[in-house]
Fold these 3 entries.
Entry 1:
Amino acid sequence: MTVTVYGATCASSRRSKEWLTKNGINYIDRNIIKNPLTVDELQEILRMTVDGTDEIISTRSKTFKELDLDIESLPLQELLELIHQHPRLLRRPIIMDEKRLQVGYHEDDIRQFLPRTTRRNQILEYLGLTPNYLQPAKG
């Protein structure tokens, strides 16, 4: 699965990419300020959210405040066009693959992008067990 990091030059995006690299996860890096998301791409991201636009829009951003938006009154298509025109409205980074989505950098949550076997082996190691037949680890 291909992981994509939609971000910008910010600390959270940088930490996310560092974590993915450290854990051997290949990813595609996309700077959304230089290369804004299309309306179709935004719709794909929204399909994967739990809280819809509330999950991806940064209401504390300078752009949001300057535009003085009332998100609730905007039709979705207009809002998506606005985000396309003003990508700084998005929270960053947005990390996703075909099945998972994470908005922002959270060290515990980003582990979801590790392959299942890697997560399983890390848990077993933490418990002092080896992956081979759940035998106690040596040493």
Entry 2:
Amino acid sequence: MIEITVQTLNAMLSDIEHLIDVRETDEYAEGHVDRTVNLPLSTIDQWLPTLSKNSTYTVICRSGRRSSLAIEQMKRHGITGVNVNGGTLAWQGAGYPVTKK
């Protein structure tokens, strides 16, 4: 599995085309990386078919576990995913801002 650090995510944020946060809606509302789209892992059967095999998706969650699970399922469908190591906890721990809504 391809992984990047939060520092790499921060440096590349404006260039990343598809950034998915797989936490539940309430967790997402408490604070998320700007430019993410909230697609909860619990609903992956609904949104996975909408992803393109020709794109790369960067996936984040709270700590990296759920994003890893999402990427495993994506990989089984021929979709490329990049995991953000440490997730939103590492992002906030590094002092990067989160958006709340």
Entry 3:
Amino acid sequence: MKRKCPLSIPTFLQRLFQSDQESFKLLSLYFFGWSFVVFALFAGALWHPVEFLKGLLRIIVTPDYLLTDYVEVGGIAPAFFNSGLLMLLFSYFLKLLRMPITGLSYASVLTVGGFALFGKNIFNVWPIVIGVVLYSLYRKESIQRYIYVAYFGTAISPLVSFIAFTVPLSNLMRFVVSYLVGIFVGFFLPSLASYFLTLHKGYNLYNVGFTCGLVGTVAAAFLRAYGVQIPVQKVWSEGNNFIFSIFLLILFSFVTFSGWLLNGKSWRGYKKLFRHSGRLLTDFVILEGVPVTLINMGLLGVISIVYVLATKSQLNGPTMGGIMTVAGFAAFGKHLRNVLPVIAGVTIASVSNCYELGSPNNVLAALFGTTVSPIAGEFGIVWGIVAGFLHSAMVNNVGFLHAGFNLYNNGFAGGLVAIVLIPIIKAIHKREDL
């Protein structure tokens, strides 16, 4: 009598997707978190647990406003564990709230995971989330309505760490004040984000990043007014391109393969994504389905990795955060047709400006600058290049305003680019419907 062969991974994926798509989508979110956790375990957590815990503690207690690379601060294993754990927790919260998994779910969870490699950690994200929850209770509305604002709102979490570990108060008072400030900010984020969306008309995908940029600017101005020094910080690790490229290429190649497999082993329907400008709110999971969305996420992930390596830059916390964010928003507005012109515009600026092509300034602007990709999607390649070129200059000059408290610095800059550029496009094209 023949034994039944265990299901292969492709067969399991196909059967799960066909029988219960919601379970499949939730599993795919967990997949990213577990991939990072497992990588962390084999990268040192299992073999050197004491050093791993020390590294995790350093990540928590180090002021982590821009630019703070957790790979350099705590080591590879602690950085990836911090990222993977937050992705798992934030995915699980969606399950607890019985949220349907959409493109916005992928964008928010992967963005949290990406920035958990350089700024967000298991200590500083919770006050923001608590503040948003309290806002929903105050409004007597469901938390489901605001949960993604809470997720993206953790962009301002370095403000919590800065107060908790830098401000000259007693230990207990610093922690209490840091959490109260974080809760206060989180409480007003939903209202602020909703209002600021009207300024850039949805052409900046990181709308909460734009909001947090303004909040961070107010916070930094207040602290400076009372003599609190906020030193410039740049922690940037090097020398891990080989191991990180292997891990990331396997990860995103598998995502692409999964989408291709579930799409009937074809690329059918992928070009349909290009019909969408990507302007908020463009949810590819809802509009085009999970398989095509996974293909798009995988391809943009791989292209982002190749870009970092081609510019002779470094794969580290910040750049991997950029790659994860690009891949996440590949489910919520970004695709090849609207991303590549923006990257081209940033690259052209990089060749001509005062920074080296592979410098942190330029490579991060290229990755995160795709926040303005809807401009390319709506108005074409030329305006996409212009947007990328303008964004490159803008993003390198707005960080001082919020002192790095807003991790989504490119979201802040992208909002300003859209606010300036859209009226110009409107005037040239004589369009009143923008």
